[in-house]
From TrEMBL:
The active site is at residues 317, 757. Pfam families: UBA, UCH, zf-UBP, zf-UBP_var. Residues 612-653, 669-709 form the UBA domain. This is Ubiquitin carboxyl-terminal hydrolase. SUPFAM superfamilies: Cysteine proteinases, RING/U-box, UBA-like. It is an enzyme of class 3 (hydrolase).
Length: 797
């Protein structure tokens, strides 16, 4: 006890602002349930496993720790699995994984000799007792954000429900057989509680749902409330009532009275439709292991180093699939595992290692690759009865990699491609002091765009990239005869694909070679300003690569616009060979006899490049129910490329804090910090100022302006004044031969990249392995033709 009293100055009582870690080690995935328990530093409130707490003592000299150990309680084997009623994790009514209950025990441990004192004990100093009680009662920092993000907001009583005026129109609503008053829709129908109109719901971005008639009726009449038919039962609180002015699902305390106005006896109604919340919950609970069984065969679980699963934190499968593949590359393995020890990473980390990207990547790398956590657990999978592993929860990694990002820090599903690009940017910044160690470089390559003006002169523009985004030319399908026969059969029999089995449906098969050829094929550029002609003309752009990366990532653009400008996910197979050769895509640089266009662009031409939204694109987006301002921003931010690109941008930026801010056309002097940012990208100051002036000071738009106006570029990225493109050595990019072997696939199930489920398949030790969150098994039939992202490794010459 005297030893503890002599170290009281190193004990701190937590304040409300302190982040208290008590569920997981900051350097590993050890928890209070691990063999050695968990040690909480009573000065910094960081937690460490038994093998790592001495490192913290050596670094900080903090000697006093709260030791937490959890041991399982005995639980009846026939305990029923509770059905979730709330889209939440770790709260009452949320998901129940049927985990055993645990008993906690505590003690005070003093390092370096691990002297242990019992807790609770009246003999302990009051400061220690208060500090420990505060730690024990606090919500751990590891879980606080996760639970808060997952807990669904409770419905609120609508302000319009209390004052709703109903029209005496004599309308009587039958108990069934409903149809939209303006179209033939018989599902997703909403009853307006003011005038009794039955109208279809909003059109989903994938073309499903309704035809927007209910929301259009509100815009015409301002009648605020509607209830979804098919959700009305004796339990009125469960009915789906929507308030258009409040733009949310709400409670109507007078719903019985409002329904009676139209002759509806709610006590006799049967539930035939899911509410909005139930549909979301259903999508999050139904993606189980059985859904991705391959050809009906049982998948054999696999354990050991490199076969560790990642626990789904709630719509985090995009992160899990991406990280499993990245930690199968030599560059990431070397940087964060084989050549980076946990102790060294901790010694180099700041005071709080949970906030350091390199520390958390090293922790994740060791967690995935060491095999320490990839072991069978005693309890079998509740759903399948299979032997399983617990997997590791990437909470701290997700927190640090998503810091400051509105989407990745949420619990919403995200695009795996967006996350991959975001992560590489974070990794590059985290290695800015040692670029030679940067594993993101292994994915980078040079892209060269050659623009041939109608004058016969050329311009070359260069940029770096780390993905090849490929359009899918359906006209190059190799099974056109089968497709035609299938479509004719459907038409003759009046069949819908929704009512057909997967085996019956014939999908287009497009060779990957055709997608790569489309990337390199010539493309027309209209309204291109030619310095040779002193005016706008049509130019031809061809794209090639100036270097080949160590790892080539192909992104399949599976979302297109179908008839009526309805966005749709392509139901298509891509025939991907195990080995590809892209040698033919290498740039040849400036050719003999080619004459370069001059660099100088007149001020009036630069002014004319002021971003203006394409009216046709805006009109198509507005017709889908989006606001005029949002549609204009989407068109401008995608350089008026097309409706599909604008739709993708719009869906991923709906929650931006400035989405409702007016479009800026500022012509005044640009901000110097923005100029400096563009200069850091490699652009010359003169070009940076022109671009920022043309784009209203927006850095992202300015970057697009530079790439879309290559004649204005005077930076090192523009080789119009040089006889050849920069070599890979000059731009510090890896390079080699053009032959690549497929080793990783990220596949996606769902109608949008922002919903559904992601799974990774990885070629390991000569066999394909499926990584489905925490479940890892040998794959007997990897979906090579259904990938969203394909990862290739360059073969040695």
């Amino acid at each position: 006890m005297e030893l503890l009293r002599s170290n009281l100055s190193r004990v701190q009582i937590p304040e409300p602002t302190h982040r208290i870690y008590k569920h997981e080690c900051c350097l590993s995935f050890d928890t209070p349930r691990s063999e050695g328990g968990l040690f909480v530093d009573m000065n910094s409130f960081l937690a460490f496993g038994k093998d790592y707490v001495s490192w913290n003592y050596e670094k900080t000299r903090n000697p006093v720790y709260l030791h937490i150990k959890e041991t399982p309680k005995s639980v009846p084997e026939d305990r029923p699995l509770k059905k979730p009623t709330l889209l939440a994790i770790g709260v009452d009514g949320g998901f129940d994984n049927n985990e055993p209950e645990y008993k906690e025990s505590y003690s005070i441990v003093i390092l370096p000799d691990f002297v242990s004192l019992p807790f609770p004990s009246v003999e302990l100093p009051e400061k220690v007792r208060i500090a420990v009680d505060t730690v024990m009662s606090a919500v751990g920092a590891e879980k606080r954000e996760q639970v808060a993000a997952w807990t669904a907001e409770e419905k609120k009583v609508s302000e319009h429900a209390l004052t709703l005026q109903q029209i005496k129109s004599g309308v009587v609503i039958p108990p069934s057989g409903w149809k939209c008053s303006k179209c033939d829709k018989t599902e997703n129908l909403w009853l307006n509680l003011t005038d009794g109109m039955i109208l279809c719901g909003r059109k989903n971005w994938d073309g499903t749902g309704g035809n927007n008639h209910a929301v259009e009726h509100y815009k015409e009449t301002n009648y605020p409330l509607a209830v979804k038919l098919g959700t009305i039962t004796a339990d009125l609180e469960a009915a789906d009532v929507y308030s258009y002015p409040e733009d949310d699902s709400v409670l109507d305390p007078h719903l019985a009275q409002h329904l009676a106005h139209f002759g509806i006896d709610f006590s006799t109604m049967q539930k035939t439709e899911m509410t909005t919340a139930e549909r979301e919950l259903d999508q999050n609970t139904n993606f189980d292991w059985n859904r991705i069984q391959e050809s009906g065969k049982e998948l054999v679980p696999v354990f050991g180093p490199g076969y560790t699963g990642l626990v789904n934190l709630g719509n985090s499968c995009y992160l899990a699939a991406t990280m499993q593949i990245l930690f199968s590359t030599h560059s990431f393995i070397s940087r964060y595992f084989s050549h980076q020890s946990l102790k060294l990473a901790f010694e180099m980390a700041p005071a709080d290692p949970t906030l350091d990207i390199n520390m958390q990547l090293t922790k994740l790398g060791h967690g995935l690759l060491s095999g320490k956590y990839s072991i069978p657990v005693a309890e079998k999978d509740v759903a399948t009865g299979d032997v399983r592993q617990e997997g590791i929860p990437p909470r701290m990694f997700k927190s640090v990699v998503a810091a400051g990002h509105a989407e990745f820090s949420s619990m919403r599903q995200q695009d795996a491609l967006d996350f991959f690009l975001h992560l590489l940017d974070k990794v590059e910044r985290g290695n800015n002091m040692r670029p030679d160690l940067d594993p993101s470089r292994s994915f980078k390559f040079g892209v060269e765009e050659k623009i041939l003006c109608s004058s016969g002169k050329v311009s070359y523009n260069k940029r770096d990239d780390c993905i090849l985004s490929l359009n899918i030319p359906l006209q190059e399908a190799t099974n056109k005869d089968e497709l035609e026969a299938f479509n004719n059969q459907k038409a003759d029999k009046g069949l819908e694909e929704d009512n057909m089995s997967t085996d019956e449906i014939v999908r287009p098969r497009v060779p990957l070679e055709a997608c790569l050829a489309t990337f390199s094929s010539p493309e027309q550029i209209r309204d291109y300003y030619s310095t040779a002609l002193k005016g706008k003309t049509t130019a031809i752009k061809t794209t090639s690569l100036t270097s080949f990366p160590d790892y080539l990532v192909l992104h399949m653009r599976k979302f297109v616009m179908e008839a009526g400008w309805v966005p749709k996910k392509l139901d298509v197979y891509i025939d991907v060979p195990d080995v590809i050769d892209i040698s033919h895509m290498r740039s040849k640089g400036l050719q003999p006899g080619e004459e370069l266009l001059a660099d100088d662009v007149p001020e009036e031409a630069m002014e004319s490049a002021q971003p203006v939204a394409n009216e046709e694109i805006v009109a198509q987006l507005v017709s889908m129910g989006f606001s005029q301002l949002h549609c204009q921003k989407a068109a401008i931010n995608t350089s008026n490329t097309g409706v599909e690109e604008a739709m993708t941008w719009l869906l991923s930026h709906m929650d931006d804090p400035d989405i409702d801010a007016p479009i800026s056309h500022q012509k005044s002097d640009v901000d110097q910090s923005s100029v400096d940012t563009l200069i850091s990208f490699g652009f010359a100051e003169e070009v940076a100022r022109k671009a920022l002036k043309a784009s209203g000071g927006d850095i992202e738009k300015a970057t697009d302006w530079i790439f879309n106006n290559p004649n204005a570029s005077l930076s090192d990225m523009d080789v119009s004044s040089s006889s050849s493109a920069l070599t890979p050595a000059e731009s510090a990019l890896p390079d080699g031969g053009g032959r690549y072997k497929l080793f990783g696939i990220v596949s996606h199930m769902g109608t949008s990249t922002h919903c559904g489920h992601y799974v990774a398949h990885i070629l390991k030790e000569g066999r394909w392995v499926i990584f489905n969150d925490s479940k890892v098994g040998i794959s007997t039939n990897p979906p090579k033709d259904m990938g969203y992202l394909y990862f290739f490794q360059r073969l040695d010459n």
